[in-house]
Amino acid sequence: MFKNHIIGMPLIGKNRELKFAIENYVYNRNTSNLNSLRDISKRIIRWNIKMQLHSLDIITIGTFCYPDPVTYTTILLGLVNRDYISEYSMFDTVFNITRGFNNLPAFSMTKWFGTNFHYFKPSKHPNYNFITSLNFINYEISLLSKLGLSNIKFSIIGPFTICLMIGFSSKNSISLLLSRYNLLLSKLLVLGIKYIQAEEPLFNDCLSKHSLQIYKYIYSRIDSRLKVIFTSYFSMLNANIKYINTYGLHIDIVNNNDIVNSKLIRHFKFLSFGIIPGNNVWISNFKRITTIFKSSDPNDIIFISPNCSFRHIPYDLNSETNKKLLPNIFLSFLVQKLSELVSIKNILNRNYLYKNIYIRNTILNKKFIKYSRSFINNSSHFSQRKKKRTKFDKLGIGLLPLTTIGSFPQTNRVRSLRKMLDSKQLSPSRYRDYIFDEIHNCYKFQYSNKVDLLTNGEIERNDMVQYFCKFLEGCLITNNGWVNSYCTRCVKPPIMYGGLTIKNFNNEYKYIKILNSINLKYIITGPITLTKWSYININLDISNVIFSISNSIRSIVLDVYNLGIRFIQIDEPAIVEFIDYYSLYYDYSYISSLIINSFRFCYSDVVDKNIQIHTHICYSRYSQNMVNLLKSMGFDKVSFESSRNLSHILDFVASNSLLKYFDIGFGLYDVHSSNVPSIAKLTSSVNLIINKVGFSNVWINPDCGLKTRSYKEVSLFLKNINYVLTNVRNKIRSSKNS
């Protein structure tokens, strides 16, 4: 018999209600706004439970885990430096962690296992707080108790993953973690929770012996009175299954369906298979799923579910008003995937005729657009090119130049103009005139604040992926397909279904011509990032998608060069998560060749010109593979996100002599925090850079784009950093002359 359940639900709200409630409270912290925030949170919880009641055999709670499951779990366990804890509300504690508090820095942020969702990295600290309240968990349980429901599953990040993320290694620290976990589990047991969904994405077949020993130590001491379901996703797990001795197992078979018939899993009393992708918007392949289970024993109880949480996809396809969207037969958002789970369960239980569903999916496969393979074989072409690194004294830019990564604050005026355009209250031509004025103002703002290399006024780019994807044929932009990326930041990932050729981009060049400055940088989002941060048709070859996008970018690069622009930044912040995700399917050599060749192809028409190619990479991984990758991409300058780990990055740069191969921009302003670095802090950072790697070929910039900051904050940063750089430059020149 087949039953169903889910791993997790989104929490931002169908219309981003939580986002707006949080932002209202952050900017005006009063009791009324806090109560409103709590009410909206409860409304989202009720909706999540309601959707499960209609569809599922087990109800999962604990999925309202703002800002991310890791931070939420460490708060529940009391594994947060008590200086960050607010007695006023759980939300205030979260804001202290994510934004910084007084002189305390914000926690470091990184991507969640190859997705565009982020989490804040926990850390070891001797000053942990005591375990906190159960926050909204009591509310969830009270709702279900009133309905007389007992099949309740509580979702939490597992102790092994938390242990590795924090960096616990001694028995004392691991015992502290275990005591907090078991205390929490005992509270949940008293409240009537039946199952614990312990999410362990860090457990895989590549663990070291030491990590396996830690795992065995932890799980031999976990409170066994609750039925723990060991939950694995986004990783290959086969051989190490033999070490899992919990009551149940959930395993991702979207990426690993060979495990279904393995003898290693037969001893689990609760067996769950993640059969539909919770991180993609394409309808499930019913034929594949039913084939996987064709030999299952009808007397066995098997649970089916998405492979991961639904936090990675939009809420409801029916919310879309864009008539250009593909027919519903192609796409499946959260609400539709819940229906799929019901349909698949009924098919497997022989309650529905399989034939009808099979026909539906057969039609789907025939309608998918076939993709051109024109640009896949360019690797040899690039390897023969002679890379010429452009110096020209940085094309006229001097010592320790200051630049920005790209985007600038989104003002209320810009948001209002975009809303008027979308609602057709403003004509496209009139809108462009207004935006032209805003871009010109942005240009003047940079110039007056002594930015050495100006950007081309990204004032209108509400999202670095969506902005460029709207110029691609074969790419859809939804109206309401919002997905949470981090905190209140939401994005609308484009849906790529085929074609992918550039269209209607010429108007954008009009904005550049007026700027008329040699020290101007044009920003383009790179092919790897455009691919990774979009939903890709599962029937398309990923290399075809990437090289088709590269070809479109290539035409833009040539046009921009012909306009007189001599600095072009091709942003690739998603490289690390691209490697993480596609390592499930391909070996590293193939993945790295895609990254290198697609990037080089973007600027292949100007490779021998008097031009500098820049890039920006987030969450860099400090390994020899990354060193080789960076050296092979052929850019002249890379910007690193380094405000929270500057010393570590400088050691990485120095030990690999990276400044011999390309210029490096160090991010000294954490744009994800409202804290603007002081003159003293910036002076210390710049001196640290000079002491560790010198000043030749060094640039200074913020960590990332400035979209989420205010002009007041950006002005203060530029004022402070200019003061520091002026003093440092004068000292360097004086020492040269003496």
TrEMBL record:
Its EC number is 2.1.1.14. Pathway: Amino-acid biosynthesis; L-methionine biosynthesis via de novo pathway; L-methionine from L-homocysteine (MetE route): step 1/1. InterPro entries: Cbl-indep_Met_Synth_N, Cobalamin-indep_Met_synthase, Met_Synth_C/arc, UROD/MetE-like_sf. The keyword Transferase applies. One of its GO terms (biological process) is methionine biosynthetic process. Binds 2 Zn(2+) ions per subunit. The keyword Methyltransferase applies. This is 5-methyltetrahydropteroyltriglutamate--homocysteine S-methyltransferase. It comes from Candidatus Vidania fulgoroideorum.
